[in-house]
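Forum > Structural Biology > Help requests

Title: Can anyone predict the 3D structure of Fe2OG dioxygenase domain-containing protein?

Hi all, first post here. I have the sequence for Fe2OG dioxygenase domain-containing protein but no way to get a structure on my laptop. I'd be grateful if someone could post the structure tokens.
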Amino acid sequence: MNFVWPKEYLVNANEEFQAPLIDLDGFLKGNKEATKNAAKLISKACSTHGFFQVINHGVDLSLISEAYDQMDGFFKLPIDKKLSVRKMKGSMWGYSGAHADRFSSKLPWKETLSFPFHDNDTFEPVVTNYFDSTLGDDFQQAGEAFQKYCEAMKKLGMKVMEILAISLGVDKSDYYKYLFEDGCSIMRCNYYPSCQEPSVALGTGPHCDPTTLTILHQDQVGGLDVFADHKWQTVRPRSDAFVVNIGDTFTDRVAASIQAKVRCVWKLGIINGFEYHFDRLFDDLFYRAVVNRYKERRSLAFFLCPKDDKVLRPPQDIMSRDGTKQYPDFTWSQLLQFTQNYYRADEATLQNFIKWLKSSKTTNHLP
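Reply #1:
Sure, ran it for you. Structure tokens for Fe2OG dioxygenase domain-containing protein below:
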């Protein structure tokens, strides 16, 4: 019964979500007109739901295929072998079966393998080393494959942040580089077994990602639902595309500076030639994963995160031009601490984190 979800979480998605399709080819080649068009499409997506898909992203499709092959090899291991690398209390890394180590109800029908990635000044291949140290020689090829995959995801994530900065009218398109260039990002392999009762279970419950940017590739089984226009809609998988969504960290730090103070009142504004609905910007930004009666489903999720001790605040040029800051400054480590130790991430994570942060003495120690 721990896997049975309340009925209000299980409303069917009967429509296909028309996620904006962003062709990055021109932007990656430095074409100014293509960059402007891509930025407009992204700004439109972020003013309504914060989800879009990117194609011609520069990631070799064979690299994606190899990542799936390697994750299959892990999840097909005997359960005792998987449990030998299980996620321990206080750690974010390792294997988790339905997150039963953290939760006792509304358990997700899935297994995950999470590991860190960073590309700081050291030449240590952190992902390869992680697989070597936890799974041994049999998974050396897996470590090398995921090292390359994470490097590609980090590169793509930084490019997406660049075009997001352009769409927001930030003076320097590489403004966010200093936040992420030495940060530790999260790589997660998701495996959703077939489920005999898919009408009462969920692979992942409704939630917002607390991180900055999520780059997701889902296999052809499908199962990703987005809450948009006050209803659940399904995202049709594309083998050549990544689904990108904005997380709470970026929502708060950037959108806060251009949101009106009174929510639920729509006001149309123009920033750098792009239209924004201030109080809808990055709103209703949550999603879920459903399960399939007959087929297993897999997805690859890369979460771009800032360095844990960097203070996150809206760009000053946006602040001085467009409005009053709505939320207090914070660090990624504070939000991570909140979601790991005090709160189960859901569709209201950000609002509850802000309440917690304002009541916490840690806000007094920021530079």
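Residues 61 and 240 are 7 Å apart (CA to CA). Residues 252-284 have pLDDT under 50 and may be disordered.
Shout if anything looks off.
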